[in-house]
Amino acid sequence: MKKIIYIVLLCCFAQISFAQQDANFTLYNYNMNIINPAYAGSTSFKEISLNYRSQWVGINDAPNTQALSYSSPLKNNLGIGISIVRDQVFVLQETDIALDISYKIKVSETYDIYFGVKAGGSIINIDLNKAGANGSDPLFSENQSFFNPLFGAGVYLKHNDFYLSISTPNFLNGKRYVKQGNAPKAAVDNLHMYYGFGYHFKVSEEFKITPGIMYRNTEGAPSSVDINTTLQFKTIDAGMNYRIDEMYSVFTMFTIIENVKFGAAYDFTTSKVNQINDNGSMEVFLKFYL
Q1: Cβ atoms of residues 63 and 89 within 8 Å
Q2: Alpha-carbon distances of 290 from 40, 100, 260, rounded to whole Å
Q3: pLDDT score of 176 more than 80
Q4: Is the pLDDT confidence value at 84 over 50?
Q5: Which of 160, 238, 236, 248 is nearest to 198 (CA)?
Q6: How many separate domains does the chain show?
Q7: Which of 85, 89, 132, 162 could form a disulfide with 199 if both were Cys (CB 3.0 to 4.6 A apart)?
Q8: Phi/psi at 37 (nearest 5 deg)?
Q9: pLDDT, tens digit, for every residue of 17-47?
Q10: Contact (Cβ atoms closer than 8 angstroms) between residue 150 and residue 35
Q11: SS3 track for 140-173
Q12: What residues make up the domain containing 226?
């Protein structure tokens, strides 16, 4: 029972803290097509990315997320992306599988604007056996599974000096699982909107500074704001991210061998979650250029 109460409290604070139900990454700038389908194919090469995130390191059954994504430019100004994101916390496991298609319009020599759509589905499994409750409770008498379709869209403006991103990974409301009285009841995932902007200050041919901001808005929940700065020197990136009233992060990304980059981030929680647990969160990232 203590374990159940502990995890429930963590999840409640996580909902307040992240103001969203979608999987969340600190290194989202390096894997943007997960939240914005317009980003797919916006670079001149093919990319394969692998992410792993552990929320509150060392806590059993705390949230953890794995992601695999692919992005590639195609002919005729088209781009394609594929992503698989698996998110798990305690009894709940969700797997999102999506296909992204983007189209580029060249506005000028320095401006490109990409429009993208995302389509796929979420497979949600709730293993109530893990809760350890006695079989007489109707809420825990039967495991639950849902399939929720998803359809999202986005716009990505790309310039040599800056970028602008507006997107939602899913317009559609989906079902989850909550308790109402003594009976199970489906809950609804609300619309998530992402607004991002960054500006590249070129200090020299080998050194660049990029401050950026990401605003997340979820219907029916508090919004969140990330403010970050990335320093890029040759093939090494390093930076900090501050999520207002929630956490701050340090991160790095560098080339380990030709066409392969490795990244890592660590989050330090500053929200009320610290009253229960002050463990940080860790994220690692691999990107392959083809």
Answers
A1: yes
A2: 15, 19, 9
A3: no
A4: yes
A5: 160
A6: 1
A7: 162
A8: -65, -20
A9: 334 456 678 999 998 999 999 999 999 899 9
A10: no
A11: HCCCEEEEEEEEEEEEEEEECCEEEEEEECCCCC
A12: 2-289
